[in-house]
Amino acid sequence: MEVVGWLAQPAVLPWVALAFGLCIGSFLNVVIHRLPKMMEREWREQCAELEGRQPAAATSGSYNLLVPRSACPGCSHRITALENIPLVSWLVLRGKCSACGMKISPRYPMVEAAAGAIAAYVAWRYGASLAALGVMLFCWAMLALTVIDLDTQLLPDDITLPLLWVGLLLNVGGTIVPLRAAVIGAVAGYLALWLVYWGFKLATGKEGMGHGDFKLLAATGAWLGWQKLPMVILLSSVVGAVIGICLIVFARHGREKPIPFGPYLAAAGVIALFWGDEIARRWLPILG
Predict the structure, then answer these.
(1) Facing residues of 71 across strands?
(2) How far apart are CA 64 and CA 66, in angstroms?
(3) What pLDDT, in 10s, does the model give residues 140-149?
(4) What is the model's pLDDT at position 250?
(5) How far is 10 from 19, CA to CA, in rounded Å?
């Protein structure tokens, strides 16, 4: 008990949370890399079953978040425990595989660093509490969804739906917002983008966004309550529009190429969670 009390000290807790967050970031890298591949394998299995064929995955071995062990995609070198220390291993190896010298993307340590920074900030802000653990979980999920959507333009149900239900359960006791606000937020979040989707589709005959965006905003509403949803939608739309225009003008991103909206929703959700009240207090009076 004395050790637990010492770790919960305000001067110590953020550093403990940082170390824990770095480890979570390492696991998030696995989720980001493997979850889309697991979804693809599942889709292929379903298609094979509908066509009466034996799924190829049935003979290719297990593939999930735990097995097989992480390996270099270039030479299949199995990553050892010493080569899998968050941040440290990438720096020691100078961003290269120890066996073949293939470059390791700097995104891996960036995700680890982001997860660690999130944990440290949340621990500093909320202290040792259930709210702190919940907010860490929310932000880590948003981080994983952001990178997955940027890579694949997918927002996996395996993350968005559990995130929604955990948000509602956490707010049964009003941990972040009252339960009533959370339930209304989940419903309103889904319906808001669902209506935009169908309005755009009826007007243009095209799909303006994926269904994963509905579920992500519903999950955000379950965590933050319906009161924060207008701010989340406004922030995500403004940032998305600015970045989208910049990509088209400066990066020659084709207008026909879709731009994922999930990262903007995720970023707006985190901003609204931490600084939404301050933004509303300072800027809403200015905007009238």
Answers:
(1) 78
(2) 5
(3) 999 999 999 9
(4) 64
(5) 15
